[in-house]
Design goal:
- This protein is mostly helical.
- The chain contains six helices and no strands.
- The protein has helices spanning 2-33, 40-77, 83-110, 127-134, 138-164, 170-194.
- It starts with a helix and ends with a helix.
């Protein structure tokens, strides 16, 4: 009886220690999953770094998406763009217009400007590129539009993958994942269309 009592106390202590450490490790894993560190100071620093990355992602992706929508509109308005290009342009516009509004909403909520300053927007077309695209038609338009949109999409995928490596915001993660999956699929389609 005494032996049982003596064993029961250490056993109960061990259970209590395990329970407490499980709670602690749960907190640590949560903070690690959120992109932050395990101490309060590193958590704050990690969250700040992550939030800065989220803001920069939205600031860069908004004009990037806007240019893709502009390119999609050119294809949709073209009398000579192929039906396949027009269908893809409609798909791109339908996907990216709502994402633009979502990201603008984030920046407003975060109290951040929509201006991205001098940041590098991967895959953006120059004014000359856009003018050239506007000045051509037929098969030449289709080829140039597809070539430019592939490059454009590759830039967006890279930006989305970059923020996925740093973000702790589930909404940012969801949108960036959708960008990667959707645009990689469209890149494959466009490469096939170019033959």
């Amino acid at each position: 009886m005494r032996l049982t009592s003596r064993l029961a106390i250490p056993a109960a202590s061990a259970v209590l220690i395990l329970a407490l450490s499980a709670c602690g490790s749960g907190d640590d894993s949560h903070s690690t999953m959120s992109g932050a560190g395990t101490t309060s100071s590193s958590t704050a620093e990690g969250a700040t770094t992550s939030a800065t990355g989220d803001v920069e992602f939205a600031q860069m992706m908004i004009p990037h998406h806007e240019q893709a929508v502009e390119m999609a509109d050119l294809a949709l308005a073209s009398d000579t763009a192929s039906p396949e290009v027009k269908a893809l342009a409609g798909q791109i516009k339908a996907a990216q217009d709502p994402e633009i509004q979502t990201m603008k909403g984030w920046l407003a909520q975060w109290g951040a400007s929509e201006s991205a300053g001098q940041m590098d927007h991967g895959g953006m077309m120059s004014d000359e590129d856009m003018s050239s695209l506007m000045g051509i038609s037929g098969p030449e338009f289709n080829q140039m539009w597809l070539t430019m949109m592939i490059e454009h999409h590759e830039g967006a995928v890279e930006m989305a993958q970059d923020v996925l490596a740093t973000t702790s915001n589930p909404e940012v993660e969801k949108l960036a994942t959708a960008v990667v999956q959707g645009q990689e699929k469209e890149i494959t389609t466009m490469k096939g269309m170019l033959g």
